[in-house]
User: What shape does this take?
Amino acid sequence: MASAPNANLFSRLQEIMPSLSKGHKKIAEFIITRYDKAAFMTASKLGTIVGVSESTVVRFATELGFEGYPELQRALKEYTSNKLTTVQRIDVMNDQLGGNDVYEKVLNMDIDKIRKTLEESDRDEFYRTVDTLCQAKNIYVIGARSAAVLARFLSFYFNMMFENVKLVHTTSTSEMFEQILNIGTNDIMIGISFPRYSKHTVKAFRYAHAQGAKVIAITDSNASPLVEYADNVLLARSDMVSFADSLVAPMSVINALIVAVGMRKSDYVVKNYERLNEIYDEFEVYENSDDQDYDLTPSQKKKNEKLL
Assistant: This one.
């Protein structure tokens, strides 16, 4: 199996280019010059584009040290994921979805991301992460840009399970460090980031790690810059379909984390929700759909009260 993909793949291609056969040289040249396109092509399509057979593309991948073309393609995706601009993503989207039923195609691709995340997940690492969380004094949750949605969701439910959960805002670098200034050895930072990776999240991870805090990364690959500073890593597929990030697989992993931690701290969680339900009722937080008087006028409600 090839090692974690990075720019070394392209250095390797440049190095072996003179010794490649004519067909393999065509593939290598296309990958080097159009990696943003090649990463999202099947072996058959890539072969058609450069004028070689599908089997030639597969042999090319194995000669590079990969088990097959899917592994080479994934290496290219991981390399390109943090490099594609929004305009390039739109171009990829048009290539992938053009002429298809977008609704069905996007939903099926999201289903596939969850399935692959499940297949590739490390169960032991997941439960080690749960153990780590249950021992936390303070928990800091950070996620920038589109990952901020996931960070907010996670912190919302963790607030029901822990006494001290802080959602770190990343509007500016100075604001971020002001919020995490006192993080220490008994604390945990959970960072969520997917390509293109947020510099704010990476900086926060580096600082938390240096302060002796436990650091948990929720990201897409072991090549992610978050991994260098993380004690625990939970991986989730987020291969983009378009300029909008696909967050379904990360959300599923976060849901699993919330449920697993909630089960470990069930007594505390039940007590909190019992108190909350009393508060909800007292202050009428939610509309009561079972209240048959909700659409009656004040005079009609008084008449009903007299009847009771």
Remarks:
- The beta strands are 138-143, 165-168, 187-192, 214-219, 232-235.
- Residues 42 and 116 are 17 Å apart (CA to CA).
- The chain has two domains: 8-81, 121-264.
